[in-house]
Design goal:
about 850 residues; mainly beta; globular
């Protein structure tokens, strides 16, 4: 029944998207005309259009529009895709198109439209052109060529994106509002086809956003309605039976140009590199903009998602993954250690409101708010990886096993116990941000002052079955990773005590949890001759609520001070200091790693706090289609959560220090050649480490000074595209890239629990993952009306391990060779 409904839903989505196309094409037959009030109020920045060549159909529309008496801006279209314009008129979600890989401005670093070369912070922008060229099917994949970002720390993850920024977990924002909270099952993964650009802001940004980790944030800007008509319909096919149809259509709904629309939709039916794990998706993102005058713009965006998948994360043991086992066996890209009926299904709906109003040339209002509801159903089985410590713990429950084989159950290092996690979760998030920006002068100095208030309410309800263990008790079926026989045992062992039926797993409701945050901020961008200063301060109030427990309240003051010098030839060196404050809603922690085993209630985690000093430079000559950016930094973050075992609870109290260097060069070096070159050095170590269990001393002394798990010190990448501009091959482009990931370490200490309240410190643990280099490639041919493209990731199909966790003993496998081809028709 479930399969039938999913196929029906996909068919309906495909039919809907294909049926929309002729209607929106008809709606574009008349050229839109922007409204022009009679009193001629001060206008927003004019619409600017650049194009190499205008397709015949679009050029005809543009010439007709030019003759219209109330035309507000010229119109044209580029062959590469939707018409390029400097900014969607009146809307400031930072979503202006990126031309030839080089963005010139962004709102992510200041909440105002500021040139990137005048923003004293490290920011990289990935536009939809780069996303398309590289064949990225997730935001994580799209950030592989960004300095300071370890884009695939856990390999491909069907549950969500998990990029590491400057050695710390990054947070995702959508249109300037935070989207990720807690575990991956609190949101749907972001679909890159619905995005105009991806902005990676490295370093603390809590002064503006309040809810930002020290390493940085990844903000994505949604595609918004444009007054320039454009429609594309595409189909894709590729590795792992990847099948997809997509639609992107925008234009004016009315002749006066006051009402604009955009519809972005996608339907996917696909497998993944891991056996029995699907990658099915339905996505519809309609939006509408109302512009009553040139001073006001109101946009409403919807996003509706239905994902059906499983977990590509298999948590496979280091022996047999990083290295072969005693029998010479080793996992492959497709190895699946779960059950074929495992699932990870997500339904998500969100609505976003964007309002911009210009009171005068010197005073502007911006508002953005979003409500999102997400439902996740998760049932996953994976290797439990029992170490001698866990064997000792199980002995206390009456299950006696030979610890010399750990983490395996046999001497041949192939059979494992398996853990099962089952969760149903509903999450509701409402967040909003309203600010005013005013410009004025004091003597020789000019000021752009932005002040605002933002608010966040996060609430979640979850039912879960705790951690259940299978393939463990004598007489039950065994599980061999390399010769799997699927099927669960009749009964599963609950770490909470006793056995439960595998066919009727009891679900237990966790207490309702909510976090409410309110922030006030003010920022001044000062210009005095060649000097630019950015100074800001913010105050946050946070309340964490958990049913049955007293509310926890916290406050924080964060700020930023930065100074930049602007040379006439385009070089802008800068220095900055900033602090961070990041609540962690959805993250439960205990007093020690066995809190729930001993009947203790977990509590909401406290916020992360951090600071950073950064010096750097940006070089972008005026009008040049290329840029070079570099930065040297030191940052510290406190109160990190560590969870040494997926069977145990997380605890809080780790402090991390990161020192690093980054450089990137990108843009056009010739009219035909675009490049991206990056290098990053990241040295992330633990300055402080918490005790994992009462009375178990010695762990902090060992861990302090050790490198943070899975963070490579060296990252480098190079991407280049050559486009034929003239002759019979005009429209052909081809190129590729190389990604180097250096070696990484994971350290730990084994804790043996020999009885209730009797921990014993065991051996020291260390796993090193070797460095690797992967190659990507693309070729495309494009005319005014259509585009064909072929992309390949990990061209050599190299088997790599992206990271390992010494405490848990598991490793993560990188992406297999993935080849996609697509055909897009434009009209």
């Amino acid at each position: 029944m479930k399969t039938t409904m999913r196929v029906c839903a996909r068919s309906l989505a495909c039919a809907l998207m294909l049926s929309i196309a002729p209607h929106v094409a008809g709606a574009q037959s008349a050229p839109p005309q922007a409204a022009q009030p009679a009193e001629q109020p001060a206008e927003l920045p004019p619409l600017e259009v650049t194009a190499k060549s205008a397709p015949k159909k679009q050029a005809t529309k543009a010439s007709k529009a030019k003759a219209a008496p109330q035309q507000a801006a010229p119109q044209a279209a580029a062959a590469e895709g939707p018409p390029e314009q400097s900014r969607y008129t009146g809307v400031t979600n930072g979503g202006s198109p990126v031309k030839d890989y080089v963005a010139t401005d962004s709102a992510v670093g200041t909440k105002t439209n500021t040139p990137l070369k005048e923003t004293p912070q490290s920011i990289s922008v990935v536009g939809k052109e780069q996303i398309r060229d590289q064949g990225a099917q997730s935001v994580q994949e799209a950030t592989r060529y960004v300095p300071g970002v370890f884009a695939d720390p856990f390999g491909p993850d069907s549950r969500g994106d998990s990029s590491i920024v400057r050695g710390l977990a990054g947070q995702y924002f959508i249109d300037g509002l935070r989207a990720t909270y807690g575990y991956s099952q609190t949101m749907a993964p972001i679909e890159p086809y619905a995005l105009e650009r991806i902005e990676v802001l490295r370093g603390p940004s809590s002064m503006l956003y309040g809810q930002a980790p020290t390493g940085g944030i990844i903000n994505v800007a949604s595609k918004l309605p444009s007054e320039l008509p454009y429609t594309e319909v595409g189909v894709d096919y590729g590795s792992f039976d990847f099948k997809q149809v997509r639609l992107d259509s925008t234009g004016a709904l009315t002749k006066d140009g006051k009402w604009l629309y955009r519809i972005v939709g996608l339907a996917r039916d696909a497998d993944t590199q891991v056996d029995y794990v699907d990658n099915d998706r339905l996505m519809l993102a309609p939006s509408i903009t109302y512009r009553p005058t040139n001073n006001t713009s109101i946009s409403v965006l919807g996003n509706f998602r239905d994902d059906h998948s499983g977990s590509t994360q298999q948590f496979l043991p280091a022996v047999g993954t990083l290295t072969p086992n005693k029998r010479g066996q080793r996992a492959t890209h497709s190895t699946f250690a779960g059950e074929p009926d495992d699932y990870y299904d997500t339904q998500s709906q969100s609505g976003t409101l964007l309002i911009d109003h210009k009171f005068s040339d010197d005073l502007k209002l911006h508002h953005v708010s979003r409500y999102a509801h997400t439902e996740n159903a998760y049932d996953s089985t994976y290797p439990a990886l029992l170490t001698p410590a866990r064997f000792s713990f199980l002995a206390g429950l009456g299950i006696v096993l030979d610890p010399t084989n750990a983490p395996f159950l046999n001497g041949g290092e192939s059979q494992v116990a398996r853990a099962r996690t089952k969760t149903d979760q509903q999450t509701d998030i409402f967040n909003t941000d309203t600010n005013l920006t005013g410009t004025f002068r004091t003597g020789w100095a000019s000021h752009k002052v932005t002040g605002g208030i933002d608010y966040m309410h996060y609430g979640t309800d979850q039912q879960n079955a705790g951690t259940l263990i299978d393939n463990l008790v004598p007489g039950q079926p065994t599980f061999d990773i390399y010769d799997p026989r699927y099927g669960r045992s009749t009964f599963l062992l609950s770490l909470g005590g006793g056995f439960v039926s595998a066919d009727n797993v009891p679900m237990f409701a966790r207490p309702h949890e909510a976090q409410i945050q309110t922030g006030l901020y003010i920022q001044d961008q000062i210009k005095l001759g060649p000097w630019t200063g950015v100074f800001g301060i913010r105050q946050d109030w946070l309340t964490a609520e958990q049913a049955g427990a007293p509310d926890e309240k916290d406050t924080a003051t964060t700020g930023r001070a930065a100074l930049m010098y602007n040379f006439d030839f385009g070089l802008t060196p800068y220095v900055s200091y900033s602090t961070s404050f990041a609540p962690q809603p959805g993250q439960p922690v205990g007093d020690h790693i066995l809190a729930t085993v001993y009947g203790q209630t977990l509590r909401p985690a406290g916020p992360l706090e951090g600071e950073q000093v950064e010096i750097g430079f940006k070089y972008q000559p005026n009008g040049a289609p290329f840029a070079i950016n570099a930065a040297l930094y030191e940052l510290k973050e406190e109160n990190q959560i560590v969870q040494p075992d997926i069977l145990f609870d997380g605890i809080q109290g780790a402090n991390v220090k990161v020192r690093g260097f980054e450089i990137e060069a990108l843009g056009k070096v010739t009219p035909e050649l675009k490049i991206i070159g990056t290098y990053s050095y990241t040295d992330a170590i633990y300055e402080k480490y918490p005790e994992l269990f009462p009375y178990a001393s010695g762990i902090p002394a060992f861990m302090e000074g050790k490198r943070v798990d899975g963070i490579p010190q060296h990252l480098a990448s190079l991407w280049a595209i050559y486009s034929v501009q003239d002759g019979p091959l005009r429209g052909l482009s081809f190129g590729g890239g190389a990604r180097y990931v250096g070696s990484a370490e994971s350290n730990g200490v084994e804790v043996q629990i020999v009885g209730p309240g009797i921990p014993v410190i065991g051996r020291e643990l260390k796993i090193t993952t070797p460095s690797f280099t992967l190659f990507d490639a693309m070729v495309a041919y494009e005319t005014d009306d259509w585009r064909w493209q072929l992309t390949a990731q990990n061209l050599e199909d190299k088997f790599v391990v992206t990271s390992c966790a010494a405490y848990r003993g598991d490793c993560f496998i990188g992406q297999a060779r993935t080849i996609l081809t697509g055909f897009t028709y434009k009209f």
